[in-house]
# Entry
Amino acid sequence: MDSVHDMGGMDGFGKVEKEPNEPAFHAPWEGRVLAMQRAMGYAGAWNTDMSRFAQERLPPSVYLSISYYKRWALAMEMNVVERGLAGADELAAGHALRPGKPLKRKLTSEVIANGFKRGSFARDTNRPALFKIGDRVRAKNIHPKTHTRLPRYVRGHVGEIVLLHGCHVFPDTVALGMENEDPQWLYTVRFDSRDLWGPDADPTVRISVDAFEPYLERA
Amino acid sequence: MQLRVRALETVLAEKGYLDPAALDQIIEAYETKIGPHNGARIVAKAWTDPAFKHRLLQDATEAVRALGHESRVGDHLTAVENTREVHNIVVCTLCSCYPWEMLGLPPVWYKSAPYRSRTVKDPRGVLADFGVTLPKDTEVRVWDSTAETRYLVLPMRPGGTEGWSEEKLAELVNRDSMIGTGLASQPGKAS
# Structure
């Protein structure tokens, strides 16, 4: 969806400010949010793209005005309620009022190492890739109302395939249902800065995105 | 926010979905164990072992896995090399994708609107915010991590480090140099 999370190329946000001696967390609750996200992911409660999609659905003014971990927390509440894992009344009460739903598994101390493993998103396929390294491709001018990983700033522009990563779970569909993996070929497409930002752009700059095959057409 | 998050955790724990003791362990690991030293070790090895560097640039996932890391740190990892001719810089414009297993938790600036918005349009301006100026003719390659691939920048080895051990070199490899917003530290100025 076309919202403010898709920030590439926007002006007006100012300088990048580096915080000296930045701690891992700025408040204890931030660590709890991160750890809960890991634990619920391990349990199969929702996936990464559902978490991202929930954040993208926050009202733009909210998204821009709250901290990173607060965004995570609000998105987690959305997923908990939308996926029927707890009711809004229970979150408000701060206690479970009904029994839980069965989940695939649970992250406990015995299996804690699994909480740090990144899932693999690659999938086998016998479908041949449509494009090869060196091909010129255009990022489609598409504007899905749901989750997508094709940023607006490349849509409609032509670039070159520079890497082929294999077949990966398709975020656009898996964000809408755990079972909708619909694996797609994944490429890195490199663009010239002048094609994206006009003739006055710095000619030494190249920008690449990782793009799934359904995002691309032959140029 | 503290109370709201505690309410969420209490509900999820009472429902049987999560174990608060496991959450403690995750937090502790991110505070004490998982940090840029993981990536620094990889970079220092690449600086001293040409065969490893070759494997890393060909297939970072396999190269890192072969080092026998405890978890599958390198899934879908791509390493990109900085040289005099090409400077690489990594961003995630859509959220905050970052090679956690290599670099630990991303700093706030990496997840901030200024970094996410400007890096793809004005990378030299962003580099200036970090005090980095590149030669005018160096090609700047911006990698927007829009999928589950993760990018690790292999910074240039600083001069004056001939004959240094991997361990000593690793001290020069700071986090920002592996994102591409910085350069490796000069000898005598390790950060």
